[in-house]
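Dear Dr. H.,

I hope your travels went smoothly. While you were away I took the liberty of generating a structure for the chain from your last submission, since the lab meeting agenda had it listed for discussion. I wanted you to have the full record in hand beforehand rather than looking at slides cold. The sequence, exactly as received, is reproduced here:
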Amino acid sequence: MPATTPGNVPPHFLVIVPGYMGSKLRDRTTGEIVWVDFQSIPKNPFQWDGWIDHLFGALTYPNENLEPAGVMDEVIFVPPWAKQEHYNRLVEALQGLGYQLGPAPGSELVLYTFPYDWRQDNRLSARQLGAAIEQWSARHPGHEAWIIAHSNGGLVARWYIEKEGGKDRVARLFLMGSPWDGTPKVMWMLFAGLDTLFRRRFNLFDIPRRSRDLFRTFPSAYQLLPVQAPFLRSGNEEPVNPFAGTGWLETDRQRHLLEEGRRFNEELGTTLSVETLCFFGRKIPTVTQGMVTLAAGGLWSAIQWLATEAGDGTIPEHSAVHPQAREKLPFAVGHGDIYVTPAVLEFLEWELIDKYRAVSRAAVVTERLTVMFEPDRDVYSPGETIDLWATVHENREGSPPVSGASIKVQLVWRQPLPGMEPTAPSEHLPEAHLWESDETAGRYEGGLVAPDTEGYYQLRALVRAVGEPAVRLEELIAIEAEPDLVGE
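The corresponding predicted structure, in token form, is as follows:
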């Protein structure tokens, strides 16, 4: 490790490795952004089916004509996988700490992003990450690589570090909602497909089946299936092993990819050869178990999923907490925005900058409190009531819920839905106060009315508990009218 003097940050450059679906993919021949340029979505609904055909056809793997073209700079809304913030928000936050996007000659704090083809085998992505870090290391002699990796990006980074010699280049790893033992939600996607692609009107075009068939072509998807923790059972409570009973797949290639996914996880294991801090979300309803309905011949006819609060909405807590991490840091935050949550960014500021400069660290509220804030669902129609709730309690075992908190929620415009004109709402956006339930201490409830303008919105909650600093939480929702088969 490079020597440092008091008050100096060790010489390093930062690398952001995004998660699943977090990198743009571009056609090498035409220059077209395939995944995903919202401006390319037709405004005419009668053209949507053709656009979806083109999108899914181009994304089907293998298609070596696609190449990475930067990290996502638009919101990704693809339940059940995640509602994901764009990574530019993380870049902007780090720039606020003094980092400059590389190469930035003369700057002491340099930041790079590593977009990659998230469809491909994570081993290949890891080797490509290694090649990029070799180039950046030559550009910054004597500097360590510090990696901030979100979700699947953590698997890419860890494979590079553990299997491709990366531990000689990388000194620190910050994992953001990254699994070491996969997530049942990938089983959901491989078995049934996406619930929603960007907006629910697209679902008139058989999105679940088409997206399922697409995901089954991705080698990386199978590498996100849990291997260690049993998560499927039959109706008689017997464990169901998705790697042994392959009746849920259709082709030999899919079965080969499934076996490769199992082998990838077993070879990677839980080893962490560099200093690793593990940031994970909790207290968000997360799919953790499924009950399989079996049909004749060992085929699977359905999976009924069970959600608990042991996770971040996508990655179960069991899988997000790396056993070998130096620090395991819980936050009441969802999977798709963990890397832009104020409490997480505050902790990053301390770990990246302030602790080397003898700056006092402000208290991180979520070290003492667990605050959960949720709307009742993800998508609303104009004029519908958005039911909101929050819970506040101390982290100490056996501590009572926190009463007397003040919780204010503001609705904020983010961006139009795909295929819409970029028009912001003209009406005044509502605010709401949540009041403590008479029946349940520490639970706060309230609501506000969805605006008339369709689009993506942010619900921003400000939570103040007596004697504690304020906690800020955000949730992404969509406002969209119900699909009208006749009108479309």
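Two observations you may find useful: The two ends are 62 Å apart (CA to CA). The chain is about 20% helix and 30% strand.

With kind regards,
E. W.
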